[in-house]
Amino acid sequence: MHTIGKGFVAIVTGGASGLGKAAADFLASQDATVFVVDLPKSFPNGNKDENNVHFRGADITSEEQITTLIQEIRTKYNRLDCVVNCAGICSCHVVFDTTTDKPHSMEDFMKYYQVNVFGTFNVIRLSVALMRDTQAQQDKKGPGVIITVSSVTMYDAPAEHVAYSSCKAAVAGMTVPLAREFSEFGIRVVDIAPGPMLTPMLLRDGTGFTARACLKSLIFPVRPGQPEEFADAVRFIVENPFINGTTIRLDGGYRNPMGSKYAYQETSSDNKN
Ligand SMILES: NC(=O)c1ccc[n+]([C@@H]2O[C@H](COP(=O)([O-])OP(=O)(O)OC[C@H]3O[C@@H](n4cnc5c(N)ncnc54)[C@H](O)[C@@H]3O)[C@@H](O)[C@H]2O)c1
What we know:
Elements: E1 9-13, H1 18-29, E2 33-38, E3 48-50, E4 53-57, H2 63-76, E5 82-85, E6 96-97, E7 102-103, H3 106-137, E8 145-149, H4 162-173, H5 175-182, E9 188-194, H6 200-203, H7 209-215, H8 227-239, E10 246-250, H9 266-269
Parallel strand pairs: 1-2, 1-5, 2-4, 5-8, 8-9, 9-10
Antiparallel strand pairs: 3-4, 6-7
């Protein structure tokens, strides 16, 4: 089994909030060196270092910013054991809005792919050389793992989730080819597909409806997942060397999304089939 402790170096994208923050907090609590990466606006006081945690404002879609980050990690630590890709954005639009007779904005659709798919891919492609060198120094016996975050909505989503759920299927679809390609470096690739988790993303619709509706889809326990439960899944994946090339559902048995065709139209949703 691998251990997370002093010397272990990780990047957590989207680490200023929700699932990423929980993962970063956990890794830091184990004395790992953690680079918490999020949009610069998430760190209004700029980049800062607190003991073993480095907060870095960067956009995961930027080649330049992520290259600078990786160069910094190489110079300071010459080691990278784990990348947890939590940065993401959620969308909810119908493809054709019958109230305005307008189709889904193409620009919006591409924006979700830009962050969720291209951004995740960008971080992975720019991290792998340092992870490969780290594994080479350890005779490929280090923890070396890339963790991506898809979503259970890729299996079964309400109608308005076409952009989001298809993005997440794309993220999950990277898992096996990446695991195959990186196997020669001793790097594993594992995807987590969370169900509804109690984070700002779940609560962002402002009405609480999404959170309430999600509960209809859970088998047990009938409550949103806790960010700490996500962090524990990260721990399990890092520590267990035999987990590779798979998507792990973390979802309380989520099925039949939100019990209705539409997630965001509370009054009409239960009347639609
Ligand atoms: N919360 C849920 O119910 C849930 C369920 C399934 C999957 N997920 C996925 O889990 C991941 C984390 O979600 P969360 O619930 O913690 O959301 P969150 O909104 O709390 O956190 C996401 C973080 O990503 C950051 N981010 C967004 N775009 C970025 C960019 N271009 N560059 C750098 N950082 C960026 C945001 O600033 C934010 O801090 C996301 O990929 C999300 O799609 C969440």
